[in-house]
Write a structure and sequence with these properties.
about 260 residues, Glycerol uptake facilitator protein, 10 helices, globular, disordered C terminus
């Protein structure tokens, strides 16, 4: 791996904030603004998330690796592909970006419709319980653990030596779209604590009360995804002489 200057803390925070805001606009933004205005359904939202991740990878991947998801950051740290000192930096950027993206969505929706009320039912929040129109607690747990594991496993696969960086964005974007196609009817799909926070912050109610689950179970899933990757590859520590991901310019998605 060629020597490169490690991105500064400020650059990582800014890159992750921009990327996470793009994800919020592409995913929840499609659900709250696009579908309400032009019609559509879960497929449109799934593609919105996938395209947003694809765009973000190419926009900020050279700076931070485009984690834009605390579960991805956590998974990379667990398998020793991210310096622990960088974890709070990444998560800070992701939380800022999620809140910013949620605010933009709320401002647009409120400006278009003076009667708009951001609530768990209208703001693309993550929920469980059939009373909210979604599945119960245990299906939610299974979806968040299994599908976050899939996402982290795929992200790790795109970071392996020799993988084509230009293809990585397509790979992870399609993966995220597929994940949403599977699980939107179950709990509106999180697999990303920042995404859940960004909508719950404005919706309040059950979305805030249930937010803990969309933090805890994606993180558990990230651990399983990292474990599966280590079992498959037989190692988790970068080879001697390689920089730890997060200290170079292609932290997670490409080398």
């Amino acid at each position: 791996m060629s020597e490169v200057e490690a991105p500064s803390t400020a650059r990582i925070i800014l890159a992750e904030a921009i990327g996470t805001a793009i994800l919020m606009l592409g995913g929840p933004g499609t659900a709250v603004i696009g579908i309400n205005a032009a019609g559509g359904g879960p497929l449109a939202v799934a593609l919105g998330f996938g395209f947003a991740l694809l765009v973000a990878v190419y926009a900020i991947g050279h700076v931070s690796g485009c984690h834009i998801n605390p579960a991805v950051t956590f998974g990379l740290w667990l398998v020793k592909q991210l310096d622990g000192k960088r974890v709070p930096v990444y998560i800070a950027g992701q939380v800022i970006g999620a809140a910013t993206g949620g605010l933009i969505i709320w401002l647009i929706a409120s400006g278009r419709d003076s009667g708009f009320d951001a609530s768990p039912a209208t703001f693309a929040t993550n929920l469980w319980d059939t009373g909210n129109g979604f599945a119960g607690f245990w299906p939610m747990v299974l979806v968040e653990v299994v599908l976050t594991a899939v996402l982290v496993f795929v992200v790790l696969s795109t970071g392996r030596r020799g993988y084509s960086a230009p293809v990585a964005g397509v790979h992870v974007g399609i993966t995220l779209a597929l994940i949403h196609m599977i699980s939107i009817p179950i709990d509106n799909t999180s697999v990303n604590p920042a995404r859940s926070f960004g909508t719950a912050l404005f919706a309040g109610g059950d979305a805030i009360e249930q937010l803990w689950a969309f933090v805890v179970f994606p993180l558990i899933g990230a651990g399983f995804g990292g474990l599966l990757w280590v079992m498959l590859e037989g190692e988790s520590v970068p080879e001697d002489g390689d920089e730890i991901a997060g200290d170079d310019d292609l932290a997670a998605i490409a080398e």
